[in-house]
Amino acid sequence: MNLNNASKDQLTQWEQQLSAEYAAIVARKLSLDLTRGKPSSDQLSLSDAMDGILKGNYKSQDGTDTRNYGGLEGLPEARQLGADILGVKVTEVLAQGNSSLTLMFQTLLHAVHFGFEGPDSAWRRQGPMKFICPVPGYDRHFTLCEQLGIDMLTVPMTADGPDMDAVETLVQTDPAIKGIWCVPKYSNPTGVIYSDAVVARLAGLGKLASPGFKVFWDNAYAVHDLGDSLPLANLMDLARAAGTENSVVQFASTSKITHAGAGVAFVAMSEANLKSFKQSLGAQSIGPDKVNQLRHMRLLPDLNALLQHMKQHAEILQPRFDAVLSALDTAFAGTDLGQWEKPAGGYFVSFDTRPGCAKAVVKLAAEAGVKLTPAGATFPYGLDPEDRNIRIAPSVPTVAEVVGAMDVFVTCVKLVAVRQQLANLS
């Protein structure tokens, strides 16, 4: 089905056929959800051994009684695991509660109101604040910026990562730009892995940008490979070599590794930045949940154990991704109806409809009983200028449910595109 070459009679025939198929789907009264990238129950069950794993022994490796107050930085063994995930020194990592998103908010808040180099470096004292957001990107990053009054500028996401020519031009010409959001491995939602050259250029931004600039490196999917582990250049090593280590802040968590609502989150930055950050963190907390950190370390004592654990996640996720990609290949390969990525890990498949169709596809799918992430969610302020991008999250439903949901999705994409083309010919 190639719409650009179709006659009005062909389009009318397709519209009638697809409308009948859609009506039959609606009559089935489905209730399926592909909205958020949450682990499935089967994935969560992989970590159920944490329940009772301490067996009354609450002492950490250094003898800390984890039931008590204190230990703002987190358990040493938990910090080591975070350091191994992010590829940094253990002295550059804090292990905290379950949410890396919380740590992102706290880090932003510290930069905005307190500054990493003293009160005069607080972003709010320097005038307007702006962040660069590669698009399509992660909606919760955008929410953080909106919450703190940080304006957002978009740059395109390429097959190698952010368009670095555009990024470098922006930071060199606009001193109000304070940072850039990055999901460097299996980027949300495109699945892109940043190339070595892109990572090196990101590491060098601290020399080009205004003082206080930060690369917010949300490495949420660092170990979430569906097959063989794929490499990602070490941002901190490159920044250290460039003398820009103070411009880098990294995040990771176990929220899609163990129990999502009860995991461990990590933040990594230079020791100078950590010293500053701990001043505001210490005003908020006497210490994280060290008992939970200890449970995690008994289940996953080192990086090798973690990687073995993630292979079990991949075995559960791969058939779901295969179902999505098979449906898209079967329906759209060789057509002009859409474009999509084939990620090798992470939690999403990014699909681009024909321009002007995404919102209508999401609406039709919802009316047929399939919930999708709102169109536009992958852009700041919910505004996709071309109304194209849709993020598909197949992790929670069963494989059979994913197959059923994709049948609906494919029908909706075709129907909306045909109706749009008919309207254009009218």
UniProtKB/TrEMBL annotation:
Residue span of the signal peptide, if any? none
InterPro entries named among the record's database cross-references: AspAT_Ic, PyrdxlP-dep_Trfase, PyrdxlP-dep_Trfase_major, PyrdxlP-dep_Trfase_small
Q: Which domain of life, per UniProt?
A: Bacteria
Q: Name one GO molecular function term.
A: L-aspartate:2-oxoglutarate aminotransferase activity
**Pfam families, per database record:** Asp_aminotransf
> What protein am I looking at?
Aspartate transaminase
